[in-house]
Amino acid sequence: FFFNDTATTEIYTEQIVGSVRCVQETAIMCLDSSGSMQNSWNGVKQAAQEFLQKRAQISPTDQISIVTFSNDARLEVQNEKIDPQVVNKLTYIGGGTDFIRAFEKILAFLRQKK
After folding, report:
1. pLDDT digit string (tens) for 37-68?
2. pTM for the structure as a whole
3. Whether 67 contacts 31, CB under 8 Å
4. 54-87 per-residue burial string, b: 16 or more CB within 10 A, e: under 16
5. Whole-number Cα distances in Å, 19 to 28, 57, 68, 86
6. HEC profile for the chain?
7. Dihedral of the CA atoms 26, 71, 100, 86 (nearest 10)?
8. Is there a contact between 108 and 72 (Cβ–Cβ < 8 Å)?
9. How many angstroms separate the CA atoms of 62 and 54, rounded?
10. pLDDT value at residue 6
11. What pLDDT score does 45 carry?
12. Is the confidence at residue 20, as pLDDT, over 50?
C-alpha cells in the first residue's frame, strides 16, 4: 500500500472484502513523509489507522510492516501484530521525495523475509 498526497481518502478507506485464511500474512505499508506531506501527515496516519482497523477485523493474525520515506526510507514497524495504534510510532521526516529509497527498503525487507 502506498500513501502519498496524490491519493484520496476513498482509496485509504476502501472496504476490504476477505475470506478466512489459514496462512499468516504481512501487509506492507509505504507512507510518504516528505516535506509536501507536512500539512497532510495526520491525515495519512489516520487513513493508515482506518485501514489497519479493517484489516484486523478481517484477518487478526496478520502482521504489519511500515516504511516511511522522504530523502531516505525507514522501516519503522516490522512484523508486528496488526494493531491500529501502531501508527502512533510513526514519525514525520520532512525533506525531499525519493520513491526509489522506499522501494529499495521494501525489497530489502522482502529479501530478508524469505
Report:
1. 999 999 999 999 999 999 898 888 888 999 99
2. 0.77
3. yes
4. bbbeebeebbbbbbbbbeebbbbbeeeebbbebb
5. 19, 11, 29, 24
6. CEECCCCCHHHHCCCCCCCCCCCCCEEEEEEECCHHHCCCHHHHHHHHHHHHHHHHHHCCCCEEEEEEECCCEEEEEEEEECCHHHHHHCCCCCCCCCHHHHHHHHHHHHHHHC
7. 10
8. no
9. 12
10. 38
11. 94
12. no
- Set of cell numbers at residue 88: 502512533
| Placement of cell 472484502 in the chain | 17
Cell of 36: 509536501
